[in-house]
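subagent[fold] <- orchestrator: predict structure for attached chain, return tokens only, no commentary.
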Amino acid sequence: MHKPTALLALVVAATFTLAGCGKSDSIDTSKLQKAFASSEGMVKADAAKIVNAVKAGNWADALSSLKSLASNAKLTPEQTQAIKDVMAQVQAKVTAAVDKGAKDAQKAAEDLKKSIGG
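subagent[fold] -> orchestrator:
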């Protein structure tokens, strides 16, 4: 791999990593927490895992756990709606992070091309 190509790949990877990381207070998990507050065992633990993943900005884990919890056949309508609401918010965050990462990567590629005289 040529040095400029390797550098570009590194910049793109770092951009996507940074765009998806970071804490987020903008996702409201209060309805999810309330809906599962009286749940027992693993269901309650799974809901707590989701809240922790959201607070940490770990979108992949949050979505995976949300999908897993949503497949539980014993959910109440309130729990099902809370899962759908949080899932929609997390998916919006992922989309925004990808869009931002793509724009940042394009700018980095343009800057790199200018710096190597291309």
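orchestrator: received. Logging for downstream: DSSP finds five helices and no strands in the chain. The chain has a mean pLDDT of 81.
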